[in-house]
Design brief:
485 residues, three-stranded antiparallel β-sheet, 13 helices, 11 strands, binds adenosine-5'-triphosphate, binds magnesium ion
Length: 485
């Protein structure tokens, strides 16, 4: 089926009950007391309390990543107290550019502990290691013993980040911006998309995205500009020679980088590997059902966030066939009791939340739509899990607000663009709700006409815009003329 291209709002405009538009999305009670969902609370000092001098140095990274995260108002420590505490921490650490005071996860001590271990590892020389594959700077973060515990993707090293170590992307951007990249995505906000995907996963109870939050880290293995490295060296030298002067620097070390930190999941392999295996050696019925249920959750996640990068290398599967040793017959293996477990992990969610549906000629398909699992109607279990949420307008509004709290922390945040992102997401949710109610299959879902649900700027009602008969999925195996990320 071909996909018509133009995204023209057509004749079918339906009115939709929605909360009144607000100039600024409200920060709900408990929300305002904690960090942006998926984000760290940066315990900032008040300007007056900052050390004097070397003012440009207060930027976490010399590349303009100077947008403070949410202030920790109401976090249990007043801002003034927080500032003093911040200064003490920084002084105690010799203000060497470490990040302990930037990564505060008051509502998630387990995650805070993992980040602390990563920071401790870095301090004792066990640095994050760049993942060799991939088109951007992504790093395996380790604990002090060298065990991989997370995947960190700094904003500035994303495909179109200015410090992307893989220069070909930079070349694409400069020389032929219209032919490469995804014109429907907000550039250089992949780390928010990663954290946003986890937020959606968590709110819907899908459980397929490893925990992912916004974190600040500094490591000499990251890609820094020569200027940043020279500045850091110069200040260290000054500290040795003229400690009095050097005390005025806010930071001696390299600038911290903001990025997404995803927990590392162990025992998983790329889906491609297992899919081939399962083709040759089909799963037992119980495990097949379990896999189908996990697969449906992946579909729901991808569809809601309109992931544009779900190849079969960007989701992982862990399949364990455990022999519990209860062998009732030595010879006859059919009596051997085995426990099997299968689990999907949706990684690499950095290219989602488009602000418009992808254009026809480079419609980024959901690659799972070609799998046999996509032909099976959504199970009752999956429908029971998500339908009550998705069909509830308040839930959807709440989801948008949580994403707003997260996305607005980026220095390039633009309210209008965010609204467009939410219009696409609400449209996806509308389609998905209908598909689940109608007991459709994933393959039928991706053939539904694209739709956006806009928030009205004038009245108390939003509107649903059906985008002609356009389809989000094209069923041909032809690749776009230009390939990209
Ligand atoms: N949370 C995780 N747990 C375990 N392994 C992971 C995790 N995230 C990533 N990996 C491993 O690291 C590899 C690269 O990760 P990912 O695809 O997210 O990075 P990337 O830099 O965006 O790469 P690409 O541009 O190729 O998509 C994956 O193929 C996977 O093997
Ligand atoms: Mg990948």
């Amino acid at each position: 089926m071909a996909e018509p291209g133009a995204e023209e709002p057509d004749e079918r405009l339906l009115l939709l009950e929605e909360p009144p538009p607000q100039a600024e999305l409200p920060r709900r009670g408990p929300q305002s007391a904690r960090a942006a969902p998926g984000g760290a609370v940066r315990q900032c000092g008040e300007p007056g309390l900052e050390e004097v001098g070397d003012s440009e140095d207060s930027a976490p990274e010399g590349d303009g990543e100077d947008e403070p995260l949410l202030r920790a108002a109401g976090s249990g420590r007043g801002r003034r107290a927080g500032a003093a505490w911040d200064r003490e921490r920084r002084a105690a650490a010799g203000h060497t550019g470490h990040t302990a005071d930037m990564n505060i996860f008051l509502d998630d001590p387990e995650f805070a502990e993992i980040i602390l271990r990563t920071e401790q590892a870095i301090e004792c020389g066990v640095f994050p290691e760049r993942i060799s594959q991939g088109s951007s700077g992504s790093y395996f973060a380790k604990d002090p013993k060298g065990k991989i515990i997370g995947v960190f993707k700094p904003k500035s090293e994303e495909p179109y980040g200015h410090l992307n170590p893989k220069w070909t992307k930079y070349f694409h951007k400069i020389c032929c911006p219209c032919c490469f990249g995804r014109g429907c995505l907000v550039p250089n906000q992949g780390y928010l998309s990663e954290a946003g995907a986890y937020l959606v996963d968590e709110k819907l109870g899908l459980g397929v995205v490893p925990k992912t939050k916004v974190v600040w880290l500094v490591s000499e293995t990251f890609n820094y500009s020569a200027i940043d490295r020279a500045k850091s060296r110069g200040k260290k030298y000054a500290l040795e020679k003229v400690p009095k002067v050097a005390k005025k620097f806010n930071r001696i070390g390299l600038p911290p980088k903001v990025g997404s930190f995803q927990l590392f999941v162990e025992g998983y392999k790329e889906a491609d590997y297992w899919l081939r295996k399962f083709e040759a050696d089909p799963l037992p019925e119980n495990t097949r059902k379990e896999f189908q249920s996990q697969f449906e959750r992946l579909v729901i996640l991808d569809y809601v966030i309109r992931n544009t990068d779900r190849g079969n290398d960007n989701w992982l599967v862990r399949y364990e066939k455990q022999d519990d040793g209860l062998d009732l017959s030595d010879k006859d293996s059919q009596w051997t009791i085995t426990k099997e477990s299968i689990k999907i992990a949706a990684i690499d969610n950095g290219l989602a939340f488009p602000f418009k549906h992808p254009d026809e000629w480079r419609a980024y398909p959901f690659h799972w739509a070609w799998l046999p699992q996509a032909k099976v109607p959504f199970s009752q279990e999956t429908r029971d899990l998500v339908l009550p949420h998705l069909s509830d307008m308040n839930f959807v509004q709440d989801l948008c607000e949580d994403l707003y709290e997260l996305f607005k922390t980026d220095k390039g945040f633009d309210k209008a663009t965010f609204e467009n992102q939410m219009s696409v997401m609400r449209g996806q949710i509308l389609n998905l709700t209908q598909a689940l109610k109608d007991e459709k299959s994933p393959i039928q879902l991706v053939q539904m006409p694209r739709v956006i649900v806009e928030r009205s700027s004038t009245g108390s009602q939003g509107r649903i815009v059906h985008l002609g008969n356009a389809f989000t999925q094209t069923f041909h195996s032809r690749k776009p003329f230009f390939s990209s990320w």
